[in-house]
């Protein structure tokens, strides 16, 4: 369903599956070295984690349902919900799946490929000649 199809005056959230309650995103330092990207690769090995870049800021996204999200999509702790939930509005929320990021990564392999494209070659172990950070 599109925003425009929601009846006038209706609460948008009543037509949603609680999308904004199913993840959180935190800004992280912009990765600049192989070690930085290796850390991000490790984050992403934990499963339901992705990354996006918007206006040159990198964000780590953890896809996890809030424990208070009820089966019908309503908030189970509405009266005592955190301030971040109170401040959030439907004005520019993700009701429609039309979000588009400057960059979006869904797997450790993707972030490693990106690092290989933008960084100089990895340093090599002098004795073995192998890259210092193991490839995925
Ligand atoms: S604020 Fe937007 S994304 Fe969150 S539940 Fe309401 S309609 Fe869905
Ligand atoms: S506290 Fe309520 S509004 Fe906030 S994320 Fe959890 S279910 Fe959603």
How would you describe the overall organization of this protein?
There is one protein chain. This protein is an alpha+beta fold and 136 residues long. It has one domain (3-118). Helices cover 20% and strands 15% of the residues. It has helices at residues 34-44, 83-87, 108-118, and strands spanning 24-28, 49-54, 57-62, 103-105. Strands 1-3-2-4 form a four-stranded antiparallel β-sheet. The protein is elongated and about 70 Å long. The model has no long low-confidence stretch (mean pLDDT 92). The structure holds iron/sulfur cluster (2 copies). One iron/sulfur cluster is lined by residues 12-13, 16, 18-20, 88, 90, 93-95. One iron/sulfur cluster binds at residues 12-13, 16, 18-20, 88, 90, 93-95.
Keywords:
elongated; alpha+beta; four-stranded antiparallel beta sheet; 136 residues; binds iron/sulfur cluster; single chain
Task: Reconstruct the topology from this structure.
Elements: E1 24-28, H1 34-44, E2 49-54, E3 57-62, H2 83-87, E4 103-105, H3 108-118
Antiparallel strand pairs: 1-3, 2-3, 2-4
Helix pairs in contact: 1-3
The protein binds iron/sulfur cluster (2 copies).
One iron/sulfur cluster (SF4) is lined by residues 12-13, 16, 18-20, 88, 90, 93-95.
């Amino acid at each position: 369903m599109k925003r425009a199809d929601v009846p006038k005056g209706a609460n948008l959230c009543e037509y949603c599956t609680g999308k904004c309650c199913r993840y959180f995103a935190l800004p992280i330092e912009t990765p600049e070295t192989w070690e930085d990207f290796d850390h991000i690769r490790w984050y992403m090995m934990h499963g339901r984690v992705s990354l996006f870049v918007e206006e040159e800021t990198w964000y780590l996204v953890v896809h996890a349902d809030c424990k208070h999200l009820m089966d019908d999509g309503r908030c189970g702790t509405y009266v005592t919900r955190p301030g971040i939930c109170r401040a959030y509005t439907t004005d520019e929320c993700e009701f429609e799946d039309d979000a588009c990021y400057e960059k979006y990564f869904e797997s450790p392999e993707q972030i490693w490929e990106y690092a290989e494209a933008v960084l100089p070659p990895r340093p090599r172990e002098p004795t073995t000649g192998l890259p210092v950070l193991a490839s995925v």
